[in-house]
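Model: You mentioned two targets. I'll fold them one after the other.
Researcher: Yes, keep them separate.
Model: Target one:
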Amino acid sequence: MSKTKLLSLLAVCLIFLVMIFTLKGGKKADAEYFNINEAAEETVLEENKSLYFSEKSKGKMKKVHTSEMISLYCDEETGSIAVYDSSSGKLWRSIPKVYAGVKTGTALIEVISDGAVYTLYSQGDSTFQIETGESFVKLLYDFHKVLPDKNEVKILLPVTFSLQSGTLTAEVDCSEIENESRKIILKSISLLPFFGADREEIKGNYLFVPDGPGLTVDLSDNPKEFEPLLIPVYGEDVSKDKAEGKEALIGAFGIKKESSAFVGIIEKGTELAVIKANKALSETRLNSVGAFFEITPTGVTEKGKLAVSKNVYNGKIRVSYRFLSSHNADYIGMASAAREVLIRNGSLPMASEKAESDYPFNLSIIGVGYDKNTNQTRILTSYSQTYDILSSLMAKGVSGINLRYRGLFDGGINQRNIAKAELTLGNTDELGELTSFAKAQNISIFPEVKLITASKKGSFRDKAVSLCGGYTVKNAGIFEAYDSDFISPEKIDTVNEYLLIKLRETDFDGVCFADAGKYLYSDFSRNGVLRTETSELIKKELSSASANKKLMVDTGNLYGVKLASAVVNLPSISFYKDRELCTTVPFAEAVYHGFFDYSLTPINTAKNSETAFLRSVEYGAVPHFEWYYADSSTEKNKDEYNYNSSINEAQLYYQRMSSLSDLRDARITAHEKVKKNVYMTEYEGSTKVYVNYKNTAVTVDGVTIEPRSFVRVG
């Protein structure tokens, strides 16, 4: 055989070989592995220029439907759509109105061919057909392209745009996609990725992305360099990606342009979505924001190969767009519109309950954890010591306590499989005294449990398989000694049954899920599931747990909060906070406020506790402290987790924040930076709370705010 033929044969084997890993427990990873062609890892086909709107193109567009001052148009020449908001006179186009030097499209797809990823645009890389109905237009994009590697793309993508109740909806039923390509894998789909995109530099305009609490990207300047922001909804899939700390609690994004704005809310396929925002540079690109959906998950192995899942999403992806004008055209208006959509589709409760209890104080107590000073697991706070801490707080006037008790089961914070774990902290008499005291003082106790993870010492038999081989693992955190494995999603219900039995045997009136509202993952075993299915399984088990117990969740991803009475560790800082032109804003808090009490990360563990306290006030959060019991005579007071070091601070902050108690069930209606390091949060009823982070007093609107303090008006 000639050398050329031998090399060709080897290349074919590398591309199409299905590598099956035999893992402990007998599971096999269900993925294909390709050598990555780095030069073509994400190649945009440039041989054909896209079609663009001209300045006069509105006259060529056909009106499809009008609903509540919003009209949907379709351009039959370009296969694009536009929306006209008559209340603001704003026309939102799916592709730019003039050529800007970059390819665009009403929809785009990514495909994998010979280990390389190619991007194809509906404008220029496809032909289309149009079907219209009373309130919708369906565009069938026929992507038909010969790639540089000579492989041929033949994919039919049906996208339906409908208009009802003033809301534009873009939807793809993935089961209707036709892929007749022999060697092409459809990796991802993006709907309206350039909706409202342009290159304008106008002060006050911005992109919005749900990074952490929320993030705006200033559009008043086009920098020389700007790397696109990529935010996976509900964080990275821990079965395929290395966690970087990116968190998007809610699948939403938007653009503000002067007195107009829109917000897109992802309603279907949310778990597979990644929000992407890009800035116009000095010479290229556009200001754009949108979502793409990875319907075929991919990852990169440690050996640099492209891993491609054989688990493919066949459900629907849907994004709904609401249009805003005047004083509502900002990120708080976007939050209000998103809130309405999420109530309508059942993601949030129909109405918030009137807050009648004492102003809350969220307290996390570490029971059994890993002591890094002694390199061993030990009891850090016993039941009797917790009783002492609670008594001290009550004596200082702190009430409404929600106690998140961590590390009560076998393994402590390094919890073993909850289906096999028992309460191991202290004795039953001490526990009885604690629960009796708590009940008498209206203190709610939420024992923290891990439903989907367990430490490797006593882990699950059935584990989730990662895309790149091996099991899905969570790295150890504070007070944890070992990494943890994730359970196979199909076993979550079995584990939860054991948990509910254990909880019924106790007098705890609540339960806190440490992981179920925080991590979302796939299982890439032979019969595994994608994140969309995992989230449904988790929601079902959270519902079961909340039937007899109050529910607390960590972090606050949307799929886990509907039935929660409290959320801890809601993000207050964006991953991209230090990027040029980026500003953190309380979007998630504006969506959630009034439905449940939430707190940010513990005040006492922050670099500056006073700043953390003020941030809680600004974001409408209740105070949160995390402690363990330490005798000040034997342990250093400077340890931020030592309750002795910050209990007086907790008393002071609680007393100051309790003046806001009546705002707990009110909606946030405005938020703005009124001066440098001075912010205002407004609640329904026109109550305003001014927060001053400065070391000097400031006066705003006739109101003087003392240094490092806040003032309520109304």
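Model: Target two:
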Amino acid sequence: MVKRRRRRAAPERTVIFLNGRIVGSHPDGRSLANRMRERRRTNELSSQVNVYYNSRLNELHILTDKGRVRRPYIVVENGKSRLTSEILARIKNNELNWNHLVKMGIIEYLDAQEEENTFIAINESELTPEHTHLEVDASNIFGVVAGVLPYPEHNSSPRITMACAMAKQSLGIYATNFGTRYDTRAYIMYYPQQPLVQTSLYRALNLKDKSAGQTCVVALTSYHGYNMADAIVVNRSSVDRGLHRIGMFKTYETEERMYPGGQKDKIELPTPEVVGYRGEEAYRHLAEDGIVMPESEVNSKDVLVGKTSPPRFLEEISVFGAVEEKKRESSLSLKSGEKGKVDSVLITEGPSGNRLVKVRVRAVKVPEIGDKIASRHGQKGVIGLLVPQEDMPFTKAGIVPDLVVNPHAIPSRMTAGHLLETLGGKAGSIGGMLMDGTAFGGNTEEEFHAILKKNGFDEHGEEVLYDGLTGKQIKVKLFIGVVYYQRLHHLVSNKMHVRSRGPVQLLTHQPTEGRAREGGLRFGEMERDCLIGYGASMLIKERLLEESDKTVQLVCTECGSIATHDYARNRDICPICQSENVEPVEISYAFKLLLDEIKSLYIFPRIVLKDKG
């Protein structure tokens, strides 16, 4: 039999906490909380103080500590808002401002705990005598980023989260003084546009001055399988006219460093005597001072700033016995796989007083297959095909869509807001006006229907389209409208990575890791399992040995240890048993390293050799 724990009865006197510390008690905590709130509204208490009464535990929490997230609400008394029409009129006449409303007790800030004691209405029409507060604006329920999205209340919550994350990745004009800045990496859109469906927050933040997207004509249909699984078919002619075209700026910098021995780097044109000279071809873009000329077209591994450093050891003896100092080559060059034009060069002094050179390289990133674009409803996708305009479907008026999006992307994601924006964008472009997509209060579907009907269009946004390839009418009506799409900074040109041969690690002799180090593509355990299941044993050998860290080691047939070649006497010998019965064996270098590490633990590993038979 399970014993039930008795709930501890709440104390008779209310325990009072100040920022989590007990400071005393009171016979009636609820009335004390109400009196403190009234004092706060009449400015006898600071507006920063919050009061929370927990009736279940009979505790009163007074909160004044920093770091609390607080939101403004309009105070409601007896089912009526304190923000009356007279006060609104005074606000419009600039007689009152926000701070006046807080001091008058019309608006108060609540934190997460005091919100537990409230009953908040979203709209004034919903007010009842039980309500304690009213939202200033219904769309304030969302944060700043979600408040900029149109019709978020029509989308599922994961898609709103995705849309917020992708709004931060969208490329537009991040700063109006980008021409004079030397940011590590920056993207600027050529022809940014403001959306046709906007929200009140978008207008309040004046985001149209720093737009990060373009308005596209979007048709919802499949296109020969090229927009399966969230891929998007794009009109190549729109791209040629500048759709989603961006410029990328990347800054490289180098400094003349000082060394402990009083030596210093020097920015100059390296000469063939310098150790590590890269050949005349690498320095072809440099001027006499060793710095690249602006507007030079540079490719991967081209030198941008020529620089020489002092030798690692102060004195080096040459072949003829003379002591000489040899300079090292330490130039700044473009990374592999990158190209562009030198946009500008800045020569200045670093914090230590040494000469500092910054080179900004500019590259145009034209949309290509594999680039990521997304609407403001979490409907993201990569470009699957670029189609010439003449092969795209078209309406009877000759309108050709910029994007063809798969209709399967809509029902399972439950992004009805995307469809509403498509309809609203179409109504706005036909009616010549901006539409309001603010959460809980924007333009409605019925208003869009009326505009479309008035202008002779189908009220649901569907139109008869003709196949660009055959010229035949498509049998069903297709949904077509105008949607704001953003280009995200996941560019295939910045991620593309391929390798045939390249550098290997010093320790394991395996290929290096990562695109930046020209690394190999990892063939892991699971990939190996697939080949084992398939029975492709020679392919496993090629991937995991031949293409990785194959080495030939001499093994003693008598004691099984790794043998060496004595170059003085030109013979193979075992260092343990001095035997000359040695055989070459193909093994992975990582295995040889393992044997060496086992030896360091005073364990003697043996390799037992047998003839193939």
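Researcher: Noted. Anything on target two?
Model: The domain at 247-365 is CATH 2.40.50.150 (OB fold (Dihydrolipoamide Acetyltransferase, E2P)).
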